[in-house]
Amino acid sequence: MDKIDGQLLTLIQRDFPVTSRPYAFLGDQLGLSEADVITRISNLKNQGFIRRVGGVFDSRKLGYTSTLCALKVPENRIHQVKQIINEIPGVTHNYLRNHEYNMWFTLIAPSNEVIVDTLTSLKLKTNLDQLMNLPATQFFKINVHFKLQEGS
Amino acid sequence: MMSISELDKCIIRALQEDLPLSPEPFKKLAEDLGIEEEMLLKKVQFFLDSGMMRRFGATLRHQKVGFKANAMVVWKIPPSRSKEVGHHMAQFAEVSHCYERPTYPDWPYNLFTMIHATSKEECHTIAKKIALTVGFFDYDLLFSSHELKKVSMRYFCE
């Protein structure tokens, strides 16, 4: 990844041009051809820097409900419980963290009823009871935008 | 909440896929949807303006781009002060997310901040800086040791 890739990544996280020829537009800003921009983005995807280029939606504004959940999972059951949780379509993130509540996952669903049902069935399937449902009650900041250092 | 038409749902489904790397990617999407490119571009702008779409662009793998450590810093803040402190914490550039969440008998922490940095040590330094600024010191850092799943949500696919 060179300096121009860094500039390109910083730019296309937030200011991806919603126009007919977006890659040509980006090329004009960076002094590259349209084909160069396409090649660079393609390489950045292949190298794993970019997960996806697309819309990031606000679940609440689309009528969905989201929550963060934390579960205490015995060390020897982590693999099994992980599989049960990851199968749930609305689970978008799942991490092991250094705490007694060691499995932390986010769940998005069309309604709160679906969330409650999903968590109830999860407790039954895993036979684990120490599950916290932590839906945000106030939102102060939701902003993932990484400013890349030049040449990093 | 505004009502979302069936066409809008189709467009949202298309926009949550990976944008084609062809010179006219929106034209390609519009053709697949059976609408004019101009209408699709207007819809994208409408979704952005209305806040239904937070942004359109690249989602990065942040560990890959140098932010190797991410800490969920959890804070015990008196409920009467949580709003003010939450807004204050949100001002820090290193904080990407800041929420208030419920507490439980064995979980006293009500404010959550996500911190991204290049190392665990730096996460600790940033948390300390925030604590000194807001004047509350009952906090904990939870680092992720394993990423078990990370995908983008697919709306209107159930």
TrEMBL record, chain A:
InterPro entries: AsnC_trans_reg2 (IPR040523), HTH-Siroheme_Decarb (IPR050684), NirdL-like_HTH (IPR053953), Tscrpt_reg_AsnC-like (IPR019888), WH-like_DNA-bd_sf (IPR036388), WH_DNA-bd_sf (IPR036390)
Single GO MF annotation: lyase activity
Top-level enzyme category: lyase
Reactions this protein catalyses: siroheme + 2 H(+) = 12,18-didecarboxysiroheme + 2 CO2
Family (UniProt): Belongs to the Ahb/Nir family.
EC number: 4.1.1.111
Entry annotated with the keyword Lipid metabolism: no
Record domain Siroheme decarboxylase AsnC-like ligand binding: where: 61-141
Keywords: Lyase
Protein name: siroheme decarboxylase
Xref: Gene3D superfamilies: 3.30.70.3460, Winged helix-like DNA-binding domain superfamily/Winged helix DNA-binding domain
Pathway field: Porphyrin-containing compound metabolism
High-level lineage: Bacteria, Bacillati, Bacillota, Clostridia, Peptostreptococcales
Domain Siroheme decarboxylase NirL-like HTH: 5-51
Tagged with keyword Cell cycle: no
UniProtKB/TrEMBL annotation, chain B:
GO molecular function terms noted in the UniProt entry: lyase activity
Record keywords, A-Z: Lyase
Gene3D superfamilies: 3.30.70.3460
Residue span(s) of domain Siroheme decarboxylase AsnC-like ligand binding: 64-149
Source superkingdom: Bacteria
Domain Siroheme decarboxylase NirL-like HTH: 8-54
Catalytic activity of the protein: siroheme + 2 H(+) = 12,18-didecarboxysiroheme + 2 CO2
Recorded metabolic or biological pathway in which this protein acts: Porphyrin-containing compound metabolism
EC number(s) recorded for this UniProt protein: 4.1.1.111
The family this protein is said to belong to: Belongs to the Ahb/Nir family.
PANTHER family: SIROHEME DECARBOXYLASE NIRL SUBUNIT, TRANSCRIPTIONAL REGULATOR, ASNC FAMILY
Protein name per UniProt: siroheme decarboxylase
